[in-house]
Every structure is written in C-alpha cells, then in structure tokens.
Write the structure tokens for this entry.
Amino acid sequence: MPKSSRKTRSVVTINDVAALAGVSPMTVSRVVNAEKNVRPAKREAVLAAVRQLNYAPNLAARSLAKAEETKIGVIYNNPSAAYLSEFLVGMLDETAGKGAQLVLVKCEAVDEPAERKAVALLLAASVTGVVLPPPLSESDVVRDILKAAGVATVAVATGKARGDLSCVRVDDNRAAFEMTQRLLELGHRRIGFITGHPNQTASAERLQGFRQAMAGAPDAQSQVVQGYFSFASGLTAAEELLDGPLPLTAIFASNDDMAAAAVSVAHRRGLDVPRDLTVVGFDDTAVATTLWPPLTTVRQPVSAMAAAAIDLLLTEIRARKDGAPPRPVDRVTPHTLIERQSSGPAPRA
Amino acid sequence: MPKSSRKTRSVVTINDVAALAGVSPMTVSRVVNAEKNVRPAKREAVLAAVRQLNYAPNLAARSLAKAEETKIGVIYNNPSAAYLSEFLVGMLDETAGKGAQLVLVKCEAVDEPAERKAVALLLAASVTGVVLPPPLSESDVVRDILKAAGVATVAVATGKARGDLSCVRVDDNRAAFEMTQRLLELGHRRIGFITGHPNQTASAERLQGFRQAMAGAPDAQSQVVQGYFSFASGLTAAEELLDGPLPLTAIFASNDDMAAAAVSVAHRRGLDVPRDLTVVGFDDTAVATTLWPPLTTVRQPVSAMAAAAIDLLLTEIRARKDGAPPRPVDRVTPHTLIERQSSGPAPRA
DNA sequence: CGTAGTCTTGATAGCGCTAACGTCCCTGTC
DNA sequence: GACAGGGACGTTAGCGCTATCAAGACTACG
C-alpha cells in the first residue's frame, strides 16, 4: 500500500516501464533518449515495454531534471496571416517534442519604441532565446538589445546572412533569378518588376536576382518600380508599370500580395491573365490560391524554416550554457518554383 | 559550500525569494499563486522580494509538482490561414502562463479516414484534452472517438450549442441578423445572400439570422443562393445572384472569401462597390482588408475564443481528475459589426 | 591467468515546486 | 480564564525524470 498522499497519477511513468522491462529507470531513460552504450537485448526489452504501456515521457519532469527550462520568445508583426500561421505551426511542431515554451509578443508598429517595448516584454518574461520572423529579423535595434542581454537569437528570412546572428533563410537572389529565367523561357521579353519594401534586405536580393537573369538575355527589356509589400502599394506600382512606355507581357512582383494587386489592375483594364499578361509573385501565401487565376510563385518552406530556427536556437542555448562562444550559423533552405495559372507563354508580338 | 554536483542553476528560485523575504518557500508559493490566507505584511515582503529578484516561477517544476501534465491536442484543417494564425496566437497566449503543451495535428481532408487518422495521432501522443477549431468542431466522427477515449474536448465556432460537448462560439444567428438590419437601415431592399457550406451549422444559423431580419421588413425582397465558403464557390454564387431576376443593391456573403469573390464579380461587370452594389462578409479575416474596397464584415474574437477554449478545457480536465462528471459548457462570445468601405447606402431606385 | 582498460548498469541525489498535514497563535464565547 | 474554532505559516515528502558516480561485467593483452 503506497503511503503517498499525493494526487494519484494515472499515466505510466518511467518506473512502470523499468519494472516491466526488468531494468532500472536509468536504463529506460538511456534508451528513450537514444543514448548508446546500452546492450541490444536490454534496449529491445525496454522498447517492447514502452510500446506495451504506450509510455510517453513527462516533459515537465524531463526539463526539470535537465535543468533546462527553455522559454523561447517570438516577436511577430503579422507580416501576413498566412505566413504567421504556417510559421507558428512549424515552431510548435518542433517545440512540442523538445519541451520548449513559446512566448509570443506582438509588435504592432515597426518603429523603434514599439520594438523596444516588445523586446522588453520578452526579457521581463526571462526568455532564454528569441526567434525573429520577418520583418523584425532585420531590426538592428532588436538585435542589439538582445545581444546586450545575452539572449540567443535566430533571425528568419533575412535577405542575406548576417555575420553576427544565426539565420534561416532561402536564397532570395537565386529564387528570383530562377523565376525570371522561367519567364524568359516562356518567351517574355518585356518584363516589369515590383520591388519589395526597401527596409528588408530580401527586397534587394530579389531585385538583384531579377537583374542578373535579365542581364543574361540582351534582347529583353525591363522596368522596375518601387513597391512596399502591401496590396495597396502593388496597385499603384502595377498602374505605373502598365502606364509606362514599355508594353509589358509579364509582371514579377516581389510578393504575392502585390502580385494579387497586379492581377486586380490587369482585370480592371480588361487584360486577361495570363493570356495578355503574365503575373508572378513570391512567397506562396494563401492569396496565391485564393485568387483567380491562382498565382505562379516561389514557395518558401516556411514551416520547415520555423522548425529549423527553433532547432538552431536550442542548439545555441545549449552551447552557451556549456560556455561555448556564440557561433552564428547561416542555414539556407531550398525554395520551389510553383507554376499555377497566372503565368503563360508571352503573347505573339 | 553546496554539495550539489548538478548543473549550476543561474536563475532565481522560490528559495531565493523565500530567503530574501524571510519566509518559507511555501509562503512564497502561496503568494505567487494568489492564495488567500497570507497576512498582508508577509505578502508585501514576498512581492517585494519577487520584484527585486525578478523571480519567475519554473513552469516545469510547477506542473510536475501539481502532477498536472496537460497536453492539449489541436486538429486543424486550415480553414483559412488568417483564422488559424489568430487562433494559434490565442491558444499560445493562454497556454504560456498555464504550462500546458500544444500538440498540433493537421487533418488534410475532411473525410472520415483523415479525421480518424488525425484523432489517432493525438491519442497516440496521449493528450488529455482536445480543441476542435472549425470545421472539425462539427465532426461527429471526431467527437465520438474522443468521447469513447474519455478525452476532454472543446469545440470552437459551432453554429449552435452542442449538448454533449463544451463549445465556444459567437451568436451567428444574431450577428447575421444585425448585419442584415444594418443593410436595411442603409436603405437596401433587394438583398442577395450567399450561404455557407451546408456541413457547418453556422451556415444555417447565419441564413436564419438573415431571414429573420428580412422578415421584419415586408417591403424588402431577397434571393438566396448556395455557397461553400470558398472563393471559387463565391464567384459562381455571385454570378448567379447578379444574373437573377432581382436587381440587387446588396450582397451578404456568409464569409469574407465569398464576399471577396462577389466584389471581384461586381468589378468585372463594371459595378462600383459600394456605389452600385454593397457587399458585406462575415469573419473579418485578412482578405477583408487586403481587398479593395475593404470589406464591411462581422468580426469574431478569434483569439479570445481560442483562449477561452483552452481555459474551458483546462477546467474540464481538472474537474475530470476530481472525478466530476463532464458538464458541457456553452460559451458565447461577443461579435462586432465592422463597417468598412464595401458598404454604403442603397442607390436611388 | 591477472590486470588495466572499456562498456554497461544501477544507486543515489536532486531539479523547483506544491499537496498534505502539523503546529502555533489569534480570536470569540461562555 | 478555559476552550473550541479557525487562520497563518512551516515541515515533510514527493511529482517523474536525469546527472553523476560507483560498481559490476566484459575485453584485450602480456
């Protein structure tokens, strides 16, 4: 008869597994944590017991024992709801198994006071690491405060590597290059480009990729106008492009929202997409498929990038605890060209 | 000299606070957990110490001590990315403080095998509770399996209360009623309605609210066509409405995606929104503001609803552990009418 | 066959917190 | 003034897991 007066526990514990497998809890722990140095026979016995009892380790106990309470802060800024949800899902998937805790903070504005406030909130919650999705991944203010506070940080979707900060990103330059090449392959020779917001390095990278590809086709002409990643800015930019001196057959917008705007402008002018005008975007957010016609675009593995960010962060946190100096990592993940119905061969001249 | 050979812990613990405040750790615990029966003087001392040391309780230790490891499963189906992200944020905000764990499972299709598989995954992860956002909140299959497995469940955004399941929702009926009344106030007398997917009770509720409001204006006429919540279905439905015998001055779509489609159709036909045609939606998702003109719509407090769902779930889980019989709760949260530029007074007849 | 080395396993002692129970002390009541 | 009743606070004993170390089992080699 147990003398415990505590709440009865109903779930199976490591001790139950150990008892069934005829080994010590410690051995079960080793097997469950995939440590080596356990004889195959015992390992099998433990695994069998685990399966039989449907044992799942108690993450609270684990992180307590490991003395590694990891609270990971995320400063989000609703870049786009679609992006955010995929990003959150990716992070949650990764944290669920590792027993890390997510603390979200919204940063309404993109100005300095708002950023400072957001970071202060996270520091007050004493987070051990921070993930910065775009557009905050580029904020020097945030970076500096976090660095000063000695908090491990990972930036996501920056245009290029940042020597002082780990980041997870796609090769924006190359992706834009490939998309442009595809347009050239389709026969387009007069292509408009709508840039992204100048405060994000990804914008410059995408533009550069576009320019590099265009440089490879001497007979092609281009027109570049400034956009700011918003639907509204896309409207203005598209109007400007279509009113320009160059009769365009294709528009490459630096994100899907602006591409959607370009489609909208085209329709208002009685142009059929893609028969009269090809429109392509970047990011593969939800609008890409909500729209008619669905957008040809570049897909970033957002969810995988989020997971990678958490992974990098946990690694860095562990390294820091061991006293290792922070060593920034630059993880480039693969992108994909997705061809839907908004692109087609260039109309006959 | 401490004889501990463990990892050094750097963060402040409850003992540090207790020592500084000159009380026992237990008293600190009581203060931190806002229990009564602590004399004001001691309470103040503890709070001061907490502030001074910037103490934050270790959630892992807390949930371990309370023996309440709560893993909450969520089956999502990407109803809309905007909805999902807001929903996730709401849940995370609520779980962060309570030390609950979220396990996400995607249910790609809405057919029975997919649903069964998703639930099986959650059960395998031995979750103690499940949150069902729409559209899975209405699945009888899911409900039955979870019930059989004895897992606490909360459904979110069902059209009406479900006697056998706790749910968090808005009053769809009333919201649709109010929106329709607003249209009538604006002078609209020939109003089209696009219904939602028939497999969701919210659809019927919204339609009923519309009908009830229309019944109050004997001089008004309406035309109702079937939609399925998708943008594409909205296109078809809007075409049908505008081709119909009734020259409409307003269209009320059962969600924003379909309203967006209606706007798109109107534009294609050279109708100005809202001068020639008022279009209103429901849900206030991201499209509502991505679009031009931004949509007048009904806002659900998605994030608050998600938080409420977590709260209900934790309460129910605790009740179950105490042996109380599950008692379904129906929590109705307030909605808001949001008037943007897609609605206006009816054109002169 | 002995001995040093390596691999495997278990015993012990917490990680930080709180449930449960005792003890003390303060009221109010007759 | 004695006693019950209850509030305030401390003590003890874990929650389930793993770090650490010591002991046992085995290997290789002289």
Summary: Residues 3-7, 9, 13-15, 25-26, 29-30, 33, 57-58, 60-67 of chain B lie near DNA strand C (CB under 10 Å from a C1'). The first strand of chain B starts at residue 71 and ends at 76.
